[in-house]
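ingest -> validate -> predict -> emit
validate: passed (alphabet ok, no gaps, 506 aa)
predict: started
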Amino acid sequence: MPLPQTTLFWFRRDLRLADNPALSVAIGQARERGGDLLPMFIWEPRERRRWAPGRAARWWLWKSLAALDGELRRRGSRLTLGQGDPTVALPELARVAGAGTVVWAAGLEPDELADDGAVAAALAGAGIQTVVLPSANLLFDPAAISTREGRPYTVFTPYWRACLSGPTPAEAVAAPEALPAAPPEPAGLTLDKFETEARRAWAAGFAGVWQPGEAGAHLGLARTLRGPLTAYAEERDRPDLASTSRLSPHLHWGELSARQVWRAIAGRIAETGLDFEAAVGPPTPDDEQAPGLRRSAGAFLRQLGWREFGHHLLRHFPQTPERPLHARFAAFPWRENPAALDAWRRGRTGYPLVDAGMRELWATGWMHNRARLVAASFLVKDLLLPWRSGEEWFWDTLVDADLANNALGWQWVAGCGADAAPYFRIFNPVTQGRRYDPDGAYVRRWVPEIAGLPAAHLHAPWMAPATVLAAAGVSLDVTYPAPIVDHGEARSRALAAYDLVKSAPR
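emit:
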């Protein structure tokens, strides 16, 4: 009996057609056999695993799948949707489709890696061949970079230096112009099936901010090359400016590969005649005098490096989304204060920069990185609330929620992770606001009830004279909350708490 002719391709977090090596292999398999190609995605229930996509991420995923289906249909194919545990749903769909081969890219997170083995075993038991390719969502294999002693890196700079000392990322591959036809069966589910799970009333404003999908990703990359990249080094910490790429959700969902971003920036640098190798390397004293684009390109690509570093850590320390990397911090005297946690979540702490960031997050599913740092520091150091509480809130409300980088960021701020900020680094939300939102444009946008205050008082309304407050229509604890904690006292409290664990055995 001849082999079944259908090749099934399993999309996961690689929702793109361009620069997708696993998809290229699947297309080649289908053409070699002269058969069909069935592109497939499995929508998993929230209850299946601890770190299933949060509510904001599911809105993005739903939109991204619709965009992917549109791109497939323009090339003569379609996206088939299944639902449930992939280890059960995928083999059944492969059986119904008469698939002889199933192709996919390997996972990056612990649960995804476990699924790889379980799905492959189930398919093998059904006599179906599997082809699993390395993920192309990162520049470097997270398991391949190690110290001279063969250990994983826990400090970013030597890790990034080791990455850059190896082969440079390959050229990105263009999207196929046409695809083999998809078989009529299985028909699969429609996206309408998941609308109630993907749409949330609080996410109604997301559509006016984002364009999920591969086309939106490339528009964002083009905008970055024309604008934010040119002054990224100088302006990336300014939440009041359009100074960052906002590519993080596109990268997380694989609508854009890191290699595509790398190569696009390399091309932009080449246009100017600058030295790309010097730009991507570690900063040097000469960089202060270097042309803006060279400094900015290096700073931007190092942010891609931090993304790689997060996945390197997650691969080697898979417990870090749940537990501190430095075990001594398990004894940290965190507090329980539901009212303070709720005030932080709702952007009602009385500290304008913190509140602006948290409100931007709720309204758009995203927050500027400087605001993320300040808001996170406020939670764990001013309020002494567990970093896990912040990690879980970000996971549920960020469209770019990424397990590796969410854990890395929160442990960095809390001082308990790899390459962590020193325990005594406690961001002052007032001075941070004055430095990075000097005219108050960011705060005025997201905290409109104090927008009438002059810049001199905007970041510390409680210090403004009564006449100034009255003229701006601000009444503390009526129109806007007074600070829920005194930062000076909170800093002393946090330092005392950290003193309890900093000298504990590692």
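Strands lie at 6-11, 37-43, 80-83, 99-105, 129-133.
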